[in-house]
From TrEMBL:
It comes from Nicotiana tabacum. PANTHER family: GLUTATHIONE PEROXIDASE, PHOSPHOLIPID HYDROPEROXIDE GLUTATHIONE PEROXIDASE ISOFORM X1-RELATED. One of its GO terms (molecular function) is peroxidase activity. GO terms for biological process: response to oxidative stress. This is Phospholipid hydroperoxide glutathione peroxidase isoform X2. The gene is LOC107798829.
Length: 238
């Protein structure tokens, strides 16, 4: 696999060969290797920005929601990362200026598949026109279902729902471990001090500036997620 170095903002690398699609998203050649900097470190197949250890975590009154808080020292944004969509590298700066919900969706399907896709499509359809997007990342359910308790009961609709999704779905990634995708390493460090993601359909809400804002567990009620989305949609871009 080609190493992807993600420590430098893409707009600082004018020599890269970029291709713009009709949605103003930047596709990167599979052969591209972004330059590293002194502030980066390696993890499996990826090199990515050093975590901001000024971040600390607080729980809201609802135990399902975790809010990330940072010092004024600044922090990395999701725009510094890239992922693959249909085997093509894509800069997450594609979502610049949008309120974004990042979610891990099991490739094999789950007992939660139908209800969770209904939730995601509801949010997407009702708020897309206001600047809301969803980025779903396919993963192997074994990562969050170590015991396999509900794997046998899960309906085999994972790929069906993935193919029918109206929002953006990225290629399969690892969430945890040494070969975890840098984006999820960043999110885990910010909200869980590096602890593994333990459930399917875990959601991370990102503001219009690309800063991860809140983390929602699988069983967070729809109205609670939607309230935070509406709040961020009203905020201006810095």
């Amino acid at each position: 696999m080609t190493s992807m170095v993600l420590s430098s903002p893409l707009n600082a690398l004018p020599h890269l060969k970029l291709r713009i699609n009709s949605s103003s998203c930047i596709y990167l050649s599979n052969k591209i290797s972004l330059e590293s900097s002194k502030s980066s470190f390696s993890n499996g197949d990826f090199t990515f920005p050093s975590p901001n250890f000024s971040t600390f975590v607080s729980k809201s009154p609802s135990l399902n929601v975790i809010t990330a808080q940072t010092s004024p020292l600044g922090e990395h944004t999701i725009y510094e990362f890239q992922a693959k969509e249909k085997r093509r590298g894509l800069s997450l700066s594609c979502f610049r200026g949008k309120v974004l919900l990042i979610v891990n969706v099991p490739e094999q399907g789950s007992v939660w598949t139908e209800s969770q896709y209904e939730l995601l499509h509801y949010l997407y359809d009702n708020h897309k026109s206001q600047g809301f997007e969803i980025a779903a990342f396919v993963y192997d359910k074994k990562e969050t279902d170590k015991e396999g308790n509900d794997a046998q009961k899960a309906p085999s609709r994972g790929q069906v729902e993935i193919n029918a999704a109206r929002f953006r779905v990225f290629d399969k990634v690892k969430l945890n471990g040494q070969r975890a995708h840098p984006l999820f390493v960043h999110l885990r460090l910010k909200f869980g001090r590096g602890e593994p993601i333990k459930s399917e359909f875990h959601k991370f809400l990102v503001d219009r500036n690309g800063v991860a804002y809140k983390s929602f567990s699988l069983d967070t009620p729809r109205h609670e997620i939607e309230d935070h989305i509406k709040h961020l949609l009203l905020e201006d871009i810095d």
